[in-house]
Automatic annotation (TrEMBL):
<dbReference type="InterPro" id="IPR039949">
    <property type="entry name" value="NAA40"/>
</dbReference>
<dbReference type="GO" id="GO:1990189">
    <property type="term" value="F:protein N-terminal-serine acetyltransferase activity"/>
</dbReference>
<comment type="similarity">
    <text>Belongs to the acetyltransferase family. NAA40 subfamily.</text>
</comment>
<dbReference type="GO" id="GO:0010485">
    <property type="term" value="F:histone H4 acetyltransferase activity"/>
</dbReference>
<dbReference type="InterPro" id="IPR000182">
    <property type="entry name" value="GNAT_dom"/>
</dbReference>
<dbReference type="Pfam" id="PF00583">
    <property type="entry name" value="Acetyltransf_1"/>
</dbReference>
<keyword id="KW-0963">Cytoplasm</keyword>
<protein>
    <recommendedName>
        <fullName>N-alpha-acetyltransferase 40</fullName>
        <ecNumber>2.3.1.257</ecNumber>
    </recommendedName>
</protein>
<keyword id="KW-0012">Acyltransferase</keyword>
<dbReference type="GO" id="GO:0005737">
    <property type="term" value="C:cytoplasm"/>
</dbReference>
<keyword id="KW-0808">Transferase</keyword>
<dbReference type="GO" id="GO:0043998">
    <property type="term" value="F:histone H2A acetyltransferase activity"/>
</dbReference>
<feature type="domain" description="N-acetyltransferase">
    <location>
        <begin position="137"/>
        <end position="216"/>
    </location>
</feature>
<dbReference type="InterPro" id="IPR016181">
    <property type="entry name" value="Acyl_CoA_acyltransferase"/>
</dbReference>
<keyword id="KW-0539">Nucleus</keyword>
<dbReference type="GO" id="GO:0005634">
    <property type="term" value="C:nucleus"/>
</dbReference>
Amino acid sequence: MSFDEADGDSQDRGIIRKMGCVGDSRAAVMSATKLSSDELIRRSFNTDSCITLDCCCCSFTVKCFCPSEMTPNQKAKVFSILEQNMKGFYMKSSWGWNGDTKFDELFSANSHFLLCFLANFKTCCDLSRHNVPPSSLASSDEPCAFVHFRFEVDSRRPILYCYEIQLVEEVRGLNLGQKLLHILYKIAADNQMTQVILTVFKFNSPACAFFAKNGFKTDSSDPSRFGQSVDYSILSRSP
């Protein structure tokens, strides 16, 4: 075999390995995407109902939904939280804001949601740091926070893409966001996803600081790695 033939054979094997990697990634993503909400939670948390999160001032229940399982009121509340938290950032960005487009993206058939509901208040903060959230959150019928995620193939990797993690103002600072991220890590790991990836506006300083604190770093697919100047960052971390 000549050097050229050997080199060509090596390249062919490399292509085959890459194709196999992509095929494996797609299979993992398809398998995870097909799971029902109950199956996703059962696989990671051995329960068919909900996850309980205990925070310093109150406790929450977290339930998994696909868009078809959500009530119109739940969808309206989720979109309202997103719009209130993020519309200003989108308007400031190069992307702009289109409510119809964002609604369609949010409730795409491949989407999954973690909806967080207030369960009960504590008489005082366990850490003696906060006031108990105001009585305006007394209703447990509407979500007070949510995570929107999908399973996708990104740069040949099977990944969990966190499209949104949004909290109403009254429940921020209770460590709830970090606890919701840990649910995502568990779901990602238990479904063979190699990374949790998300996009954040560079000028959204609180969000950038939050994700950095939770171990997210610039992903290999971030445009800045290719010399592009954009107003957002693509961040990732292992589950």
